[in-house]
What does this fold into?
Amino acid sequence: MAYKRLVAVVPVLEGKVVMSYGYTRHNPAGNLKTTLRNLDRWGVDEIVVIDISMGLDAPDFSLLGQIRHAAIRTPVAFGGGIRKAAEAVKAISLGCDRVVVETLIWDAPAEISAISSAVGQQAIIGAIPVVHSQGQLWAAPVRHAREALQICMRRIQDLQVSELLVIDREHEGTQGSHAVAGHIDVTVLPQKVIWFGGLDTVQAARCLQRLDTVGVAFGNPFMIQELAVHQHRQSIRTIAGAGALRKVTPYAEV
Amino acid sequence: MPKSERPFVQCRACLYDSHHPFGLTFDDSGLCSGCTTHAEKTSLDWGARFARLERVVSPYRGRKGNYDCVMPVRGTAEYFYAVDVVKNRLGLNPLLVSFNSHFNSQAGIHNLDLLRETFDCDILQKTISPPLYKKLISETLSRLGSVHWPWLAGHTVWPVRVAVQNDIPLIIWSDHQPTEQAGMFSYQDENEMTRRSRHEHDLMQWEPQELTSGESLLSAQDVLTLQYPSDSQLAKTDVRGIYLANYLPWDTRRYSEEMVSKFGASAAQCPGTFDTYDHVDNLVYMSVHDAIKRRKLGYGRVRDHLCREIRFGRIGKTEAIALEAAYAQVDTAHVNEMFFSWLGIHAQGFEWLLKHHFGEALPAPRPAHASTTFTSSYLRNAAPLEEAQEFILIGKGLVL
It folds into this structure.
């Protein structure tokens, strides 16, 4: 049986890793190389690096150089500014394992097909920021107006991405306040899902028990505590069962 | 965007800018992350936060036959406040631990002595052999351009090693500098001590064992005691390190003044700044180290003090700029010479190393006249650090 994944999301702003709070406040949290190596040593299953610098019209390929320089074993997905298939190909060639697209879902879905043709659908994650407001869910992309999630569903129905990163945008950066997964029926989403934003270990365990879920992701909580990935993994395995996530033992070497 | 292409941003409120080594971020109004986080000191319900601290430490209280927690301390007034909170308000039995800087001042030795007597606490002090400490400083000065790295490495690892070795799972630190200066975390995050933060901010991304590579003065054996415990050792003890500043509106100046008045903690004039509480235990910090900082970053420790004071509303930005300029050209030749003599180098050699690591010195701003009303409000009850004739190596006055 394939294990589901415990994923780390690492937002980067102007070249710096940041603590991110609800997409509105960003505090400096260190450099990318150190952060990646730390998460790698803690045995996280996948790392999603997202460049959230404003006004990006192309990827910051210098970040991919830093990712490669970190020389880690954990698979890395990279997002931020990818607008063309050629940029996705370059990102993969520079060392990331998958790419994350968001704006393209609204701007140019055909370009996602082109990326899929170039690097394969398995190498693409579609990011969908979601907010819960006025009694319903809305897709809330960074560069576009909100639209009802039902409308967004039609948009992503045939999207050539392997997985969706569904983000509780308002609660990103907090713990225990995730308010999206519980409102989405397990049969609705056309692709498998990684849930992110506002999760605590109880909510994450509940998400992992869903058939549509392949992973749960944490951002800030993995930055603020020693051995945070181990602690989250252990707690989720206790709640959801040992089969929910693979077992990882803390490194014995200094 | 590569670093060189990023725009330079100056905080609209304090003196920091986007070149700050901790990597500040700025909001849409031009306020830096340090100022944004500092604003939480006036917006949070600190009574509720202290109640939260009591709940956090409650499981560790009253551990039979062992200490409740480890507390890193130094010979400055601020630590009186921290120990007072832990011992008298939280009711914990702390084991105080202190890592010897080898550059102790009279004020620092007095403060450490007074601290353990005032609070009736056991204290464990770690002194690395003097010849080895010299080797460490020689190596980090030539390799990294730092004389402070060995102390930072020891100060940040010794409490953790003590906790792991003695099965004491709680370490209580005073504050987290990257949060106080640069607003790295919200206080509500309740960030804890991590190897990552130590590696990045204290060790300048150099692990101790990396200092033994190539033609080094140091062997693997030399740096063993500076190495952080492994993840499995940390997990086995379940050790965690919390920061008091996440639960109290940390104000190092106000706390220090209270402790000077209440317990007679020593405060002394330091070269290069008006702050008479910060690092008064270390003769090299505000002299040699500050000279390195000025060359490396273009500003000295006085800017850190001024930013803190601006944020607390105790000084205006205009007056702060004038004060910083007034402290731009500090004569620390006497203390520097003590250090050069201790390490066996010449001033010219030191200058060569600074140039090698950080380039030519920028021209100092023109000395400015600044009012002494603000600076004279800092308490002084011990001899100025510039008057010291020697480093005090160990508690009662053994000199090296």
